[in-house]
């Protein structure tokens, strides 16, 4: 698979079930342990529901950008227009094809979309603070820690049962 063979497109409601299956397989459960993005060691349960994906897709301030290869969704990312910045979340790449540049491709598309479609010049994201390898991944892509922490679940929009007290670290990038 070559990067130029990957199609980037905006998700539609009919994609909801396939997106939630991908996201849940990347972050939780046994399959997720094959990849480096797993949260299974400190969170149980699901990462997201089909209904929540549909809700995001139907929101006027949100898009889910898909990476599609051979008609299969191999990656996705949620991008929200939060008014003065965009919020990047739920970056997911199939565990069997991670480390092939698909995450970088999706992040670059989020940055382009933020500037050209939303007309904004900053992206923020929340990363579970104990995920140092993930924070380092984003730092290598120009994101920096703000020093802000938020308790996991405080926003009410997270799924799963924590096995320990967790915090989100807020990262940002000026475009």
Structural class: alpha+beta
Tally the helices: what do you get? 5
Tell me the radius of gyration. Answer: 15 Å
CATH superfamily: Gcn5-related N-acetyltransferase (GNAT)
What's the story with the biggest beta sheet? Answer: 7 strands, mixed
The percentage helix is 25-40%
Number of strands: 9
Determine the CATH topology: Aminopeptidase
Count of distinct structural domains: 1
Q: SSE order in H/E notation?
A: EHHEHEEEHEHEEE
Oligomeric state: single chain
Shape: globular
Name of the level-1 CATH class: Alpha Beta
Average pLDDT works out at 88
Report strand %: 25-35%
Spatial strand order of the main sheet: 1-3-4-5-6-9-7
Distance between the ends: 29 Å
Give a nutshell description of this structure.
This protein is α+β, with helices and mostly antiparallel strands and 175 residues long. It has helices spanning 16-27, 29-32, 50-58, 102-116, 132-140; strands at 7-10, 43-44, 62-69, 72-81, 86-93, 122-128, 144-151, 161-162, 167-174.
């Amino acid at each position: 698979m070559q990067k130029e063979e990957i199609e980037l497109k905006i998700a539609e409601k009919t994609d909801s079930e396939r997106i939630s299956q991908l996201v849940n397989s990347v972050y939780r459960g046994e399959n997720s342990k094959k990849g480096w993005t797993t949260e299974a060691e400190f969170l149980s349960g699901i990462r997201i529901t089909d209904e929540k994906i549909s809700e995001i897709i139907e929101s006027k301030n949100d898009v889910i950008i898909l990476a599609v290869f051979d008609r299969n969704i191999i990656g996705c990312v949620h991008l929200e227009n939060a008014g003065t910045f965009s919020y990047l979340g739920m970056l997911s790449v199939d565990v069997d094809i991670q480390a092939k540049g698909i995450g970088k491709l999706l992040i670059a598309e989020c940055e382009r979309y933020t500037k050209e479609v939303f007309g904004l010049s900053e992206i923020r994201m929340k990363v579970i603070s104990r995920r140092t390898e993930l924070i380092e991944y984003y730092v290598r892509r120009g994101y920096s820690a703000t020093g802000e922490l938020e308790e996991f679940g405080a926003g009410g929009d997270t799924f799963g049962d924590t096995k320990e007290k967790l915090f989100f670290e807020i990262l940002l990038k000026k475009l």
